[in-house]
Amino acid sequence: RQFAQSILQGDSTAKDEALPEALDAVGLLAWDEGRAADALGLARAAVRRADGRTGTIRRVHVRLSLVAKLIPVGSFSEAARELDICQEELNASGDVVWLAAVRSLRSRLHLETGNLEDACAEATSGLTAAERHGTSLFQPLARAVLSMAALRRADVDEAARLLADARAMPFSRLGIDGWAAYTWARVFVAEAQRGPAHAAELLRSVPPD
To answer: How many CB atoms lie within 10 A of CB 168?
Structure first.
């Protein structure tokens, strides 16, 4: 927090170069503190500062961080536009580092808008990309989407199996929210399996960070 704020205040010689990431970092802190409006403003500012000034991977990173905030607040059209820009950037550059993240986040967008078929297709594509390119930290989000899609089809056993497969995977807090999506999926599956009391107990056991 202090390093990011020092950049924003102009106390760092790397201010211009690091400003997009500093804005993104402070935005993530605001998001974690429940200040959604501040977080979205900072994330949008990070995208504006990154556009045309940094490499493809850095531009895509801050844009995906914005998308991960837009989807939960229901800004689906803006999220879709930003994901399209990310995909265009990756197509033009040939970079594959964030490919699984783009597909996994798009799968979550489809899930939230009720398009289960496309959600599952994108999530499966995201898993394939993660395995192919060694970016396994994005797999939990895709598996969480697949699990929630199974739950919405009333296939509780399949939903639980998909989460079990994800337990040994690393979790990303790089604005992609794999850990949070996985945790909420566990809570909903627990509710379907054993009722709301068990789900509430599981939720209380989740560490705040």
So the answer is: 7
